[in-house]
Fold these 2 entries.
Entry 1:
Amino acid sequence: MALMHEIDFGTPLPIAGTFVTLEIDGKKVTVPVGTSIMRAAVNAGVQVPKLCATDNLEAFGSCRLCLVEIEGRPGTPASCTTPVATGMKVRTQSAKLARMRRGMMELYISDHPLDCLTCAANGNCELQDMAGVVGLRAVRYGYDGENHFKNAEKDESNPYFTFDPGKCILCSRCVRACEEVQGTFALTIDGRGFASKVSAGGEQFLDSECVSCGACVQACPTATLIEKTVIAQGQGEHSIVTTCAYCGVGCSFKAEMQGEEVVRMLPYKDGKANHGHSCVKGRFAWGYTTHRDRILKPMVRAKITDPWREVTWHEAISYAASEFKRIQAKYGPDSVGGITSSRCTNEETFLVQKMVRAAFGNNNVDTCARVCHSPTGYGLKNTLGTSAGTQDFDSVEAADVIMIIGANPTDAHPVFASQMKRRLREGARLIVLDPRRIDLVKSPHVKADYHLPLLPGTNVAMINALAHVVVTEGLVKEDFVKERCDLVAFEQWRKFIAEERNSPEAMEHITGVPAADVRAAARLYATGGNSAIYYGLGVTEHSQGSTMVMGMANLAMATGNFGRRGVGVNPLRGQNNVQGSCDMGSFPHEFSGYRHVSEDAVREVFEEAWHVALRGDPGLRISNMFDAAIDGTFKALYIQGEDLVQSDPNTQHVAAALGAMECIVVQDLFLNESASFAHVFLPGSSFLEKDGTFTNAERRISRVRKAIAPMAGLADWEITMKLSEALGYPMNYSHPSEIMAEIARLTPTFAGVTYEKIDELGSVQWPCNDKAPEGTPIMHVNGFVRGKGRFLITEFVPTDERSTERFPLILTTGRILTQYNVGAQTSRTANGVWHNEDVLDIHPFDAENRGIRDGELVSLASREGEITLPARISERMQPGVVYTTFHHAMTGANVVTTEFSDWATSCPEYKVTAVQVRPAKHQSAWQEHYRETRRQTTQILGEPSPTNLPRT
Ligand code: SF4
Ligand code: SF4
Ligand code: SF4
Ligand code: FES
């Protein structure tokens, strides 16, 4: 596809209300009230020259290029700031307008370096375009004039873009993008008049508040703010629309290409999840895709202490299959299994679980969603009937009260956080439930009405206390409950929740939050209009994760907050395809679409389609596989795209389990930590090499389109297909669209999904079937999917993980904006300039008590293990709680986490670990061991062979 340029309408689309008809250059056009003349003109097929306007920013009216004449009105108003009116007659072209526009352009050009031919924006510069459009032929004031910033130093501090003040036309689009789109307010215009200058708060970009989202770069009409890759490589010549492979927001991007090389990733304006915005990861951190650490040849070894041997695809796959068969013959059919990945596409994931069920002949398939959002599926299915969030992201625009629980959207879901911040700036109220003072508690123009800093592990106590207020203060939406919910279950719940032991006062000593704040927050949530809950892993990764999900559903049902825009219960999914991997039947007890394997009628459908007898007993979960491996009954594992050693809790236990197996097949981009235990390595593909779909947190299925061929020669779905064939169960797909066709045939909620439909609509949210042919943005509109909404009793049970004299602090973990999960991708990009190591946040009180100083090495020990990392003294923490991220393998945060897990789903309790923190002089024994293991791995691998080097 040629390089794609979306239409720029100049100003935003107003909320549609009534419409007006007017005439522009003799053409009649009908547009919503509030539309600018500029936007109406584009609708009429007329382009008015412009420089300071662009359609994702409010009109500013500074460049004066867009002047028009309006019949019956004096002067020449700016079309970007003038709204349309019924019967208006507008002229966009006249000799007078042309003269005025040329005059404006003369002023700009007289103060601009004329190095167009060597400028990185050449061919993609709005200033250049406008000079052409207005017919500029001469500049009366000369060219060597006062380009007053011509000698100003370029700011090249950001690793991904530069700022060259000499090319700035002071249109202020960057400043407004940072405010209106991103909500960071990092930029200002410093100085006055001719001395005005864009400034990142007086600092270099890297040292400023800038979060490197790229919105200003995208907004800049000149080469002032521009990507370093464009400076180095030039403009792309074609582009491909695809989906970000990092977080569950699922932003759409245009990969701008030169041949098979990416020049830049530009957020796609028509992307339904991101509307043209992005964060630093999707926008800039894609360099890992060609990093020299990529393994591009299949490898095998008989023992994990042997060196790897590069082999052909045929040899690697035959060896893997023969090992799986040998092990099943020796240890029984249940001794092998597979792990699907939320990083991979729906189609890839579907094939892995199909291979396990049909070729291995058991249900031993699980997914990394097990360790993040499995309680979401369980809790929402049991209360509402569907294992997914209830709203689309745009729904937040109608929320009056936003409640964020155990999530940190500005770091983990940044593009949605920007949308949320915009709504908060418009006046929505905010309640934050989090042990830490996350950014949203107080950031430019956003301030939480209530921050309830509950102790880790007390979510259920808190949600019960909130619900108690609703029930006992007469705030239940009785009509809604009567019409929509199971009344027997409701009455049982009402009785339970009204008990005094669930009151904010009774719970105060458990949650640590003053009862008055809890009461006030509950009243706001129940009476503030449309109230929406957004939650993250701070909810699910607990021993009562599923209970808490049910508790949130109870609260939202009791207050009538389901079934329309602005309300709902919404998981912010961690990885790009967590929703999809769950939908695709990755759990050992469910086929795609969350149908239990024990249901005969369901199994028959799959047996008929797959021509094989299927088991009706659920298989092993990841944690069961580990335990069985240590017991000696589980011997082989196929892992697609997940690093179990680094991601799962209690690293030593995971390592012992993997070390006890006889055959581990790892399919991945890099030799990750799990690959240290592998016998077969199958090189996987990055998202740029894939065709398929991802499903984001709003159930939105978006296309992933191949921008370059798989670097190792085979696509991931082809690898699984070949392995299955070698195991004796051939599959015959020639393209991922055929896999999606099978998914649609076998999964009622996907029945209407096709690649053609996604291409036509841009994306589609499931359920998509005869009842909802274009998908379902908002669930439970006319009733709950399960029929009547079911209130469930949510008894608070304290976690077994308690602080003790020996381990008196509670550790909780999370993510940071610039790194992603275990860092496999982001650590191989320039994002390290922001965060090159994990640190331990500790409250000044706890630090002082332990003689810990900022930046010093500390030991973090739990009953499972000990690591060392630098301390950061932070008032964001509350006394008694410490926090770290888990992005760097060397830190080994999961060495200290425990195996406690959610009672219903086995989701690990990452968010609560009793620890002690002390000053340290040396790295921990585990870290010494890790360093030695990596050294050996590097030795085994040797210098990267020519096949392992990036092609470009
Ligand atoms: S990159 Fe984003 S945060 Fe940084 S200045 Fe530009 S718009 Fe603001
Ligand atoms: S840096 Fe670019 S967007 Fe910002 S004021 Fe200058 S020309 Fe306009
Ligand atoms: S918000 Fe998430 S999906 Fe969007 S660009 Fe960032 S990491 Fe990618
Ligand atoms: S585009 Fe209207 S004043 Fe600049």
Note: The longest strand covers residues 866-873.
Entry 2:
Amino acid sequence: MGLYERYILPHIIDMSCGAPAISKQREKVVPLAEGRVLEVGMGSGLNLAYYNPDKVDLVFGLEPSEGMRQKARKNLAAAPVEVKWLDLPGEEIPLQDKSVDTVVLTYTLCTIADFRSALAGMRRVLKPGGALLFCEHGEAPDESVRRWQRRINPFWKVIAGGCNLNRPIPENITEAGFTIDKLESMYLPNTPKIAAFNYWGRASVR
Ligand SMILES: C[S@@+](CC[C@H](N)C(=O)[O-])C[C@H]1O[C@@H](n2cnc3c(N)ncnc32)[C@H](O)[C@@H]1O
């Protein structure tokens, strides 16, 4: 890991992912988590404040970047729930089959290199009847925005830690064998349009 990824990127991600419009999105998704939870790409722990301690037993925080785990220390100390770090990537979830009630995935599917293998792992560890709660930015519905997403993506990926602007999030999730039970989407306000289109909802395994 280079100096940029270790020392600079975590601050940039923490600041941009802490924007008010994104916090509102977290509020719509994270409080729905229950039981044993796996959060994939926990980052700087910006979701932690939104977990409901009456519903959540334990959160496994999977996060491969040491810089992000360091940046999460403050949010971790204030977390209303117990958290166990898993310092591995989403492609290598070290949990038993059918062992978690909820998988939480926010603003991370865009970044996971082998997202198909990571989604297969999430599906593997989810108990029957469990939920994948997701909130991700991705491919916009308007061709004019999509064109800019395609143009800028190669440069964006380099400065934004591997983040892709234009993944078709609902398709990625359903192609991994999940059924989407609830899906909402919109452009977030006060956000550059190329990174503003959000998809959020709930998926399960039938
Ligand atoms: C934009 S941040 C979002 C962090 C957090 N989920 C949030 O909502 O604030 C993307 C996160 O994905 C993590 N990441 C990168 N590659 C990953 C992988 N292969 N598996 C899991 N997480 C990964 C990054 O280290 C970073 O913390």
Note: The CA atoms of residues 162 and 199 lie 19 Å apart.
